[in-house]
Hints:
Order of helices and strands: EEHHHHHHHH
Shape: globular
Structural class: mainly alpha
Subcellular location: Cell membrane
Strand content: under 5%
Family: Belongs to the nicotinamide ribonucleoside (NR) uptake permease (TC 4.B.1) family.
Pfam family, one: NMN_transporter
Helix content: 55-70%
Membrane topology: Multi-pass membrane protein
Number of helices: 8
Organism: Streptomyces nogalater
Radius of gyration: 18 Å
Amino acid sequence: MNWLNSEAFTLFGQHIIWSDMTGNILGLITLALGWRRSLWTWPVQFLSGLVLFAAFYGHLTGSAGKQVVVMAVALYGWWQWQRTRNRSGDGQITPRFATWRERAAMVAAAGAGTVAVALLFQAYPSLSWDPWPDAYIFVGTIVAMYAQAKGMVEFWFAWLLVDLVGVPLNFANGYAFSGFVYVIYGALVLWGMRDWWLRSRKAARPTLEGAPA
């Protein structure tokens, strides 16, 4: 799988790597499918993790190991959406806002997880080239995927917070394609956030007895 880490082409003086480009394209597809609340969101997310695992395996064991966790969460997300998608009228999941308890739990998990993972990365330097930002991105991604699996609107906010650190870090480490697609990512996140927010309000609105459907 060495070809995944080879150069695909050069754009504006930046060297675009096959694995970076493929992973980001699959990431864009995943976000678009998530916006549409499609069950295919999770197989595509799993495929993205598999591609990056193949790219990192053998020389960046820490990065490869992180993709295993991402793929495991993708399987959980598929199971969760498969189980709950028929509760709405359109056969898809019904978005909702998290409760304050759920929000507090996710913030606490993100904070504690980031510290724990960063300390692990510092103890084993081969796992990461930049422990604290890398830990923040990794844990934030897992929290965002968990919130998405639960159908929480907050997952869009979590992705924005991850991207604020992830995009500059990718540029600094030579993964330029991540920066080039940031505008598209941002647009998808904002549109998806608006759509899920409106759907969550519609789902929460009580239907009056005798009112027309």
